[in-house]
């Protein structure tokens, strides 16, 4: 990441001994995970969905100049797109609310998987890892779209697939039972982070797991 004034100001709050807000920790965790995962050469294409009162899917310009939800973090696009993500995450911290529209975000995540590019060698999409990070209880759905507040049925409908694995991370007031249930349905793991050092360690492990995380179900005979 290029160290801009805003990013430097954001990172300054993580000096040892300083108290950091939950939303600040969540934002830092996002940047940390991306740097660890991409640094290992895995998960070069990512999508980023933020959810609070509103749900927003970050879109960036691709090589052809078109807006795309897929953020390419390799080659000539790497530095530009990583810096775009950093700016976006830092700006989101300034407008955080107390609402958690988790169900809406998870539905969008399931729908967005198809936009990842296919593997050049196999002609199929690679397995997708969904990482859900939350610091609160799900408390908002969308009545117009018939999306419930409870994210569990949304996960069952949109993310329980052989080519998707779901990991969940809870900080602050996250609902442990809900986060564990989502991880179980997604064949992943739930991690409760009580301090930033633990979170960093888990992200480091998760970044290494990426290439083997999606397990293929054995066909029933």
Rounded radius of gyration (Å) = 17 Å
- The second-level CATH architecture is 3-Layer(aba) Sandwich
Structurally, the number of domains stands at 1
Main β-sheet, in a few words? 3 strands, parallel
Average of per-residue pLDDT values: 80
Structural class: alpha/beta
- Would you identify the CATH H-level superfamily? von Willebrand factor, type A domain
Beta-sheet strand percentage? 5-15%
Helix proportion range: 25-40%
First-last Cα distance: 49 Å
Q: What is the H-and-E element order?
A: HHEEEEEEHHEHEHEH
Q: Output the strand order for the largest sheet.
A: 7-8-9
Oligomer: single chain
Shape: globular
CATH class type: Alpha Beta
Describe the structure.
The structure is a single chain. With 221 residues, this protein is α/β, with parallel strands linked by helices. It has a single domain (5-211), classed as Rossmann fold (3-Layer(aba) Sandwich). 38% of the residues lie in helices and 14% in strands. The protein contains seven helices and nine strands, in the order H-H-E-E-E-E-E-E-H-H-E-H-E-H-E-H. It has helices spanning 5-12, 22-39, 78-93, 102-112, 152-158, 176-185, 196-209; strands spanning 45-46, 49-51, 55-57, 60-61, 67-68, 71-72, 128-134, 164-170, 190-192. A three-stranded parallel beta sheet has the order 7-8-9. It has a two-stranded antiparallel ribbon with strand order 1-6. It has a two-stranded antiparallel ribbon with strand order 2-3. Helix 6 links the parallel strand 8 and strand 9 (190-192). Helix 2 (22-39) runs antiparallel to helix 3 (78-93), helix 2 runs parallel beside helix 7 and helix 4 runs parallel beside helix 5. The longest helix is centred in the N-terminal third of the chain and has 18 residues, at 22-39. The chain is globular.
